[in-house]
Design brief:
heterodimer, A: about 425 residues, alpha/beta, about 55% helix, B: about 75% helix, about 0% strand
Chain lengths: ~425, ~280
């Protein structure tokens, strides 16, 4: 059993880096798999999971040496990144951070639920075994529990909702507007669903794979149709609102792709929401007449306002998180006793047989056998209960609470 | 008695408009705004009634339609502006815009009360139907033009905030860009129609030489034509390629400046007046 400090988490999120930096370190699912393979071949990393969303890129790994492992993870994922942009946690702090992420406490939008799906997918794509799988599974359970038992999920806005709220200040009532949503992934579909719920006049869902957008458009109703990305600039020019949520390393749209004259002649500006990381709309588009562009960083002040109003809900989560971290650590410690327990079990069985032979001279009746087994079970139960209690007491809840509060105090605020 | 009431109202009205501006300005606080919606609406209607009462008293004192000098025109435009605003926003409440409109009303009424020799205004003006129509339509048009300028100004302000990605109280509490653009154009349309009617009635009166003090020159006709075209373009700009809501808003703000400049110039330089008021 390795020390808890060999559990290492290295990452970059909206707390430490603006979108212009984050987009350089975003990792696709395939790249994540390749990276984990490469790291495990080095022998330093036993298990690993990469979580890459719009707001964070993180790797959590079980290493054979925490200090060297941390350096290896930094080098592999955040080569050339500036120090303050990258954070790293070890041991209990890594667990606390993961549980906070799953609870939506570390999200751009407090309590948002998309993160749970993202955690599940990253677990599936990860290089996991008996160390990280239970940790991740418990993190997902914690995420569900805090949303069920506290008010953190109530009235929670997704980034998509916040973006649309901001866009509505320019486009007004969605009923009379034409929108384009680029990307039929989770966020794209969430935006499309929000827009149809708001009664958008017409929505075109565009995707690299037109079949996927066509399928989604069918589910979304009559006012939604679909297309590939071939006529993206023309679709932008004809829309009142364009929302882009795609994965990819290169911008999909730049100022050179768009008709400057047509945009400048528009009566009302085109509002572009770029919810992608890396950004899919080149920064020069914001300089065009008749266009207003918001990326994730631009939405931060509105999200912060929302977050500040829900701080009380965030505080309800603290006791649950501490309890869950305590539970995980106890289980982990108890798991360390597994060989000893096996030894105890076989010792008890051996002793039972010896005693029975000695007392009955090998002529034990069924009743005597049953009695001996019952006594053995009872003694084993007492011994295991004692062990569990010892495991539970290795970390006191009060000490964990202090550690958690210190950890939270040390977290950086969002970059805005 | 009337004189005393006129004086009292002249003093009270600016304060009432300022108070209304402050009450409506509380809407910028968003969720923390106190529950005073009914009280301020009641105060707004009472203030409009009192302001209309001032003109009724003036009319009564002069024994007919009161003669409007430039400073009293300020007061009339102020009344027109708040009346038009309260009518057009009766269904769609815009408390933040109301705050700005009432502050503008306060400034207009304050100028009128401070500089307008109200006691001298009890002289009776020409009371023919065409004169009354001319005065009322021009005052209403000026009020609408002023509203158009204010809405245009707010459009430009919000547009700028959006481009700069700042999310202050104005961003959160003002009506959306489309609504502001629509109100800019609607007010400009009212101003355009009012001017078209009012100025033509005035020119007709001058042409018939039936009313004392009404006359026109070619340059006056040309300038009025230019003003009408200016606001006509704003009013119909949605259908005119190249005149975006942004440009229309700039034009509306320009129109507002022009109107204020013309009113002030008429007050300070009598020769700059469109026509003799004596």
């Amino acid at each position: 059993m390795h020390a808890i400090d060999d559990l290492v988490l290295v990452g970059m999120s909206q707390r430490t880096a603006p979108v212009a930096v984050r987009e350089r370190y975003a990792v696709s699912e395939d790249d994540a798999r390749a990276l984990l393979q490469q790291l495990s071949q080095g022998g330093l990393v036993e298990e690993g999971v990469v979580l890459s969303t719009c707001n964070r890129t993180e790797i959590l790994a079980s290493t054979t040496d925490g200090t060297r492992g941390e350096a290896a993870l930094r080098g592999a994922l955040f080569r050339n990144a500036e120090g303050p942009h990258v954070y790293s946690f070890r041991g209990v702090e890594a667990i606390m951070h993961l549980f906070r992420v799953a609870s939506g406490l570390d999200s751009l939008v407090l309590g948002e639920t998309e993160i749970l799906g993202q955690l599940k997918r990253s677990l599936e794509a990860g290089l996991t075994g008996k160390k990280l799988t239970p940790l991740y599974e418990q993190a997902i359970t914690v995420g569900k529990r805090v949303r069920r038992e506290t008010s953190i999920g109530e009235g929670s806005l997704s980034v998509a909702r916040v973006g649309l709220e901001v866009a509505s200040r320019a486009v007004g009532r969605f009923e009379e507007r034409r929108a384009v949503v680029v990307g039929a992934g989770e966020t794209g579909l969430l935006v499309a669903r929000n827009l149809t719920a708001a009664g958008i006049g017409h929505l075109r869902l565009m995707n690299r794979t037109p079949e996927r957008s066509a399928e989604a458009a069918l589910e979304l109703g009559d006012r939604v149709d679909s297309a590939g990305l071939e006529r993206l600039p023309e679709e932008f020019e004809g829309a009142d609102l364009a929302v882009v949520c795609v994965d990819g390393s290169e911008p999909l749209v730049s100022a050179a792709d768009l008709n400057r004259k047509a945009l400048a002649k528009r009566d009302q500006p085109l509002v572009v929401l770029d919810l992608s990381v890396p950004r899919a709309v080149a920064p020069d588009v914001a300089g065009l007449d008749g266009v207003i562009v918001y990326d994730l960083d631009a939405l931060l002040p509105v999200i912060e306002e929302h977050r500040a109003g829900r701080q009380a809900a965030a505080e309800e989560v603290t006791p649950i998180l501490i309890g869950e971290v305590h539970k995980f650590l106890s289980l982990r410690t108890f798991a360390a006793f597994t060989p000893a327990i096996e030894e105890l079990k076989s010792g008890f069985a051996e002793e039972r047989e010896l005693l029975l032979d000695r007392v009955t001279k090998g002529q034990a009746t069924a009743r005597e056998l049953e009695l001996a087994h019952a006594m053995e079970r009872q003694l084993l139960h007492l011994a295991l209960s004692q062990l569990k209690e010892s495991a539970r007491q290795t970390q006191s809840t009060a000490a964990l609470e202090r550690a958690y509060l210190r950890f939270v105090d040390g977290l950086p605020g969002d970059v805005s | 008695m009337n004189q005393a009431l006129i004086q009292a109202l002249a003093v009270a009205l600016p304060s009432l408009y300022l108070f209304l501006g402050v009450l409506y300005g509380m809407s910028f606080a968003g969720d923390r705004e106190p529950p005073i919606h009914r009280a301020r609406r009641a105060l707004m209607l009472s203030t409009i009634a009192l302001h209309a009462g001032l003109f009724a008293l003036l009319s009564d004192a002069s024994g007919g339609f009161p003669r409007l000098d430039v400073w009293l025109s300020f007061s009339a435009v102020c009344l027109g502006m708040v009346s038009v605003f309260s009518l057009v926003t009766v269904r769609n409440q815009q408390p933040t815009v109301a705050a700005i409109v009432f502050i503008a009303a306060f400034l207009l009424q304050l100028s009128s009360s401070m500089f307008g020799p109200l006691r001298a205004l009890t002289e009776r003006g020409p009371s023919t139907i065409s004169t009354i129509m001319h005065v009322l339509t021009v005052v209403l048009a000026s009020a609408a033009v002023m509203l158009s300028g204010l809405y245009g100004f707010l459009y430009l302000l919000l547009f700028r905030q959006m481009r700069r990605q700042t999310f202050g109280a104005l961003f959160r509490q003002l009506p959306d860009l489309r609504q502001l653009a629509m109100m800019t154009r609607l007010s400009a349309l009212t101003g355009f129609l009012g001017l078209l009617l009012g100025v033509n009635v005035g020119i007709a009166m001058a042409h018939s030489r039936g009313v004392e003090g009404f006359g026109y020159t070619d340059s006056f006709v040309l300038s009025m034509l230019a003003i009408c075209i200016h606001f006509g373009l704003i009013a119909f700009s949605k259908r005119i390629p190249g005149i975006t809501a942004n440009r229309a808003s700039w034009a509306a703000v320009g129109g507002l400046m022009l109107l204020l400049g013309a009113l002030v110039a008429s007050a300070l330089i009598p020769e700059a007046s469109f026509h003799s008021l004596d």
